[in-house]
């Protein structure tokens, strides 16, 4: 093949125009301990500190590099390409400890990668001349050094160690196919043939212990996990639970084996680090155990919740029992002990444990240790349950989708004989998938029919599975190596896209990936053989979101989607044209002839989509979204897309293709950081304000580097851009704050010395309250000068500024001025029509409300999918208040638009996000209800009031009972009617209310007129109504009759809050308790399910308008039970936008209306709203503060298992750490 220079010059070193600098690298744990440190490393000048850290920590070879090397002469290889080995004679003259070193320069890494590719490319005949090889070598080194592209992590780890340094070792059980002889060969060396592949798919047979069976798969997986790669398998061949075994017994089923495999994967850490294995489990929808599989992670998350809650309940009550035993261990004589024992029993603490504590006390013990658990994703609670070490997906064929649309049945098929095991309603299974995805973000979906209709090699077998991130989909027992192009590197200074440079890079990197197949070794015979025969590649790109923002294009726009489609079409078209070019020289892949017509059919479909055809596609049930050239903002790019596919199809028809697949869009986790990409893969940005790392440690806030570029593209002048930036990142000082300045603080008792301490911490703070604390100010100053009690300082969520008299509005104004809004919403000069350009995956900062809809993620994927060989790894972000129906709609939209896979992630769907427990607290005025405070607060204060505190509210109800006469109801009274089905029986409940909203009567109607049960229920309702009117508290009825058990019972239909009842009486009193007492603990679908707990979450369409509480006239006319205590009067018909806020207040139980219960006729109800602290310790509080800080910065709030920092951000279907670069995926 011939190559031309585009980035380098003949006779000049590839690095000649690139500046390099010497720096250090250090990664620390949150406690300050050093994870990694290295000094004196040489890196390109333009690289950020994070990119340098990733290169030094992960990709430098730390040891074993010979200090002195010599070339090995090879007659068939140019001398500049000779591989190196240790110079033993010179090394022997050195002290032993100086004979080996580590890599210290980025140039060493770039040279060994590019050199190895060129060396093997020369051996394989990929270059027409030595000059072509030299051009290839120089161009690759330049692109690596300038962050234009990067291969997947295993290439950085493994490639070139043998060629560049002569590092060698005995074989590790790998295999390769000798490209000269075509023979499968066992590797004698661990390093000569590197393992550059990140993605694997492995088969599993319905066999227990033989090769290719279930237990053998765990061994094969372990070999991959050990070297940092990921794997996926379809387990649908494994027989279901209860199916017959050959020996006459019954199978324990699929789930028992999946749990074993999950444990095995969890025990293996990649390369000895703390990174977990990356694994995908896929099951077909007709498997007999599919329902258990879908619910697997939902149930495991419930187990975690039970472990966490139960451990804390047990600790609290057992400690109380132990403390009470100080007065004697006989409950009959010790009243305090009796109370503690009764309370423990009511809480469900096992009787054995209660007695055990009493026995301990009798033996002289005075305290008991009972371990508690938390919901950290890497905690003991999660490690105890199963299903945490894999991504789960279900394979959905078109037949199932049609069955859902037609409300038809769906057969589950036995694996042993192919007969129907049982039949289920398709929509019930669909509902289960939607609920599971909503509840725990698994399973994802893979559209089996669509995947296989785009399959280039169906004659060689079906596509059954994918890699862990779902972008690589091909035959079982194959592998794929990935590389990604940094799209922003091809943006010219004038804003245009450098099409020629991009096409040049696509061609070169396609050759790199093809050479990597030639030189690679694989962990099994099957993978080595099939990878050699089909030669699948994974070229992709990163930074699409950054490119769109820099161009001033909204991610959710026709222009943005069209630009994405054009770039993707050019990339894949050039990759396939290059593959055909290599086929002309070296021949097509071994499986091409058997699949020629199938592959050309797929190529013609790609070609049609590139030319914008809406129909005429061959062999597709679902037509793809065609390229809309008219909407593309770059006409030249649109022409290039069509031109690339014209050439790819023409050359393929003439010469075939060297590779069965050429492109995917991967998450680009770690390599995205190495390339300093603002966004990964096809993702939008996750935050507008970034925390940039300094070489000497620490961070400073900086607005996303593309924001000023975008603002300039949108026509803003330099002064406006500076003002907008300052609004986002803040001034870093309170000296000139409009709300809380130095003068105001001095008036409260602050001294110059204390103010100096404050100012030192404000520059990097993301919230001023994290500077106003005892650690910054000093505990002595807080308790002495400010007069704050010491115990109050230690309370979780304590707000020092509010305590010393500043209002919420003043604090928020000072916060925005000093620390910045971390969003562009509300920024000066910024026009509303330009806000969409800066929309991110989640709301930004404390006050951000805008974010991209889930549909925008899917439509962007749909724009790119028609031009991708494989699939797209991407997170479909959904707001916390998204519904189960929205999850199902997202899956269905994905299918309709021709996507191959979809992974949803609803914010807060994991227990490991502790902010999901946040509840409202009272505003500054304790007399106001929380709802009033939320609805009447300024825009900037609303979201922080919901999300910035994790404080338990305890409302003490003091009910004074006294005898009274019957209080009759008005003759014309309000109430509501609720119809439902309980265990198949219709039940009508009608309520009657007093003018103040208290329940005064109920009517129950069911069965036919004259039926005995109907009469009994009618008389029962009359008795309850009379009791209510004589002052019996509704709470007493609720406590007495809920959980009663008799027929009819079972599932409840028609009630939005109650889904199951043990009897009709149980259902009735659950309903009235929820409606009149706010007892959401008796509901199965609580208001919490709809809450926007997380930082910045809100209505993306705008703010709620201000509202007032209902006046007396409205209160008299409206049924409290019907609105379930959540009535508000809003101006302008904005009720829909208030639902979330009202549901939040109902959940807290702090609203005056919700907290007040009827105490008897005419009696006074005293409501004491006490802000008390629950059991969280100071450590828990610190963790919550760290989580809130992470969430405000745009991160997930989870802790990195490798470096301990809370800088994990969602990346495709996985997570990556912005501090150390580790990922939970395989790229």
Put the structure in a nutshell.
The protein is α+β, with helices and mostly antiparallel strands and 1227 residues long.
Give the helices and strands, then pairings.
Elements: E1 20-28, E2 34-44, H1 49-59, E3 65-66, E4 69-71, E5 84-86, H2 88-91, E6 100-101, H3 106-123, H4 130-145, E7 149-151, H5 153-158, H6 161-165, E8 175-177, E9 184-186, E10 199-201, H7 214-226, E11 230-234, H8 254-267, E12 278-284, H9 290-324, H10 335-346, H11 351-362, H12 380-384, E13 391-396, H13 398-405, E14 409-413, E15 420-425, H14 426-440, E16 444-447, H15 448-453, E17 478-486, H16 499-519, H17 525-534, E18 537-542, H18 544-550, H19 558-586, H20 592-610, H21 635-655, H22 669-674, E19 689-693, E20 699-703, H23 706-713, H24 718-729, H25 742-747, H26 752-762, H27 774-777, H28 779-784, H29 790-793, H30 800-803, H31 808-819, H32 854-864, E21 875-878, H33 884-896, E22 901-906, H34 930-936, H35 939-947, E23 953-959, E24 977-982, E25 985-993, E26 999-1005, H36 1012-1029, H37 1034-1041, E27 1050-1053, E28 1060-1061, H38 1064-1077, E29 1107-1108, H39 1112-1117, H40 1120-1123, E30 1129-1130, H41 1135-1148, H42 1152-1155, E31 1165-1171, H43 1178-1192, E32 1208-1211, E33 1214-1217
Parallel strand pairs: 10-11, 11-12, 12-13, 13-16, 17-18, 21-22
Antiparallel strand pairs: 1-2, 3-6, 4-5, 7-17, 8-9, 10-17, 14-15, 16-22, 19-20, 23-31, 24-25, 24-27, 25-26, 27-28, 29-30, 32-33
Helix pairs in contact: 3-4, 3-16, 7-8, 9-10, 9-14, 14-33, 16-19, 18-23, 19-21, 19-32, 20-21, 23-24, 34-41, 37-38
